[in-house]
């Protein structure tokens, strides 16, 4: 909804100045007997102008007040007498506005400047030589002997200085309150942007988690299916019996991936009944599936197996699964892989070494493997399991690639990390 008030805010001080001037002119025009005219509208007009420009031009406002007092000091006919002394309240109003709205040194200068003005005003009000011989009577309406000049001066000066300080600090309080409201508004906007960014981050991480889950499930299954289908297509004419065996393995891999995808979809809505993650006990089935797809894979263990947490076992399983899948897809013809699991240290030392006969390259540049979701995902799983993982090509072995990982057995993940590891076969990045 459109709010016009902020745009009209600059009219407040000028409007008040016009009202101030008009009321004093109307109040004094009938009882001045023509004595202070035309000097009276001039001095009142300058003080009213100081109020009107105090917000936009604080230095000009202070200067106008000083001009009025200097003129009154040297031109007796311009001095306020009788009932006109409250016009000096305009000086306090100007000080309050400058304290509330001005920035920098002019705001701090307004306090001593206004105090100095009131010292001069007090002299104009109490010293007989500056008040047509009447002194205090010039504004109080009574005559007092000159012996009381010092007492009169102090009696007027002290309340004036207190009023000056009060006006300045009231303005300062208004300024502090305005700045606090503006700060609260900006803080609210920043918190709103932060909440939006947090929601975007959650959505992005959830998308990445789903993408990694789908990658882990489908990349392995599709690699096995493609290998089985290609093998059956090539050797089917000469060995028809192999076709049925390949089709059975394709069907088994497809059913397994379908089941895992179904559980993944269900987990996005609610915790599915009977949901279970693969463990180290499922490694033999994994190796059998990969062997049936054409990968010569072996698993060698050293030492006695130590119990890992469920999330750590899932991490190790996914690392082995990704390593074997990449070996099948990228090692070339006659791919082989050797998985070594060493339990003899403070944790599980895992290596996956693969080799094969890579296709002939037409250029002379060495064969490189693009780092993608799979390698990054393995590193993240190892990190969340409390360990680390490295992966890279082996130049001295044809089609060689080595994955080395470590998962500590004494490490116990926090509930937050445990939950993240259980739900996130992690933000990864690709196919070897």
Order of helices and strands: HHHHHHHHHHEHEEHEEH
The residue-averaged pLDDT reads 77
Percent strand equals: 5-15%
Biggest beta-sheet profile: 5 strands, mixed
What are the low-pLDDT stretches, counting only 5+ consecutive residues below 50?
Answer: 133-143, 271-275, 362-367, 424-432
Q: Classify the helix fraction into a percent range.
A: 55-70%
Oligomer: single chain
The number of E-state strands comes to 5
Our Rg estimate from Cα atoms comes to 45 Å
Protein name: histidine kinase
InterPro entries: HATPase_C_sf (IPR036890), HATPase_dom (IPR003594), Sensor_HK_TwoCompSys (IPR050482), Sig_transdc_His_kin_sub3_dim/P (IPR011712)
Catalytic activity: ATP + protein L-histidine = ADP + protein N-phospho-L-histidine
EC number: 2.7.13.3
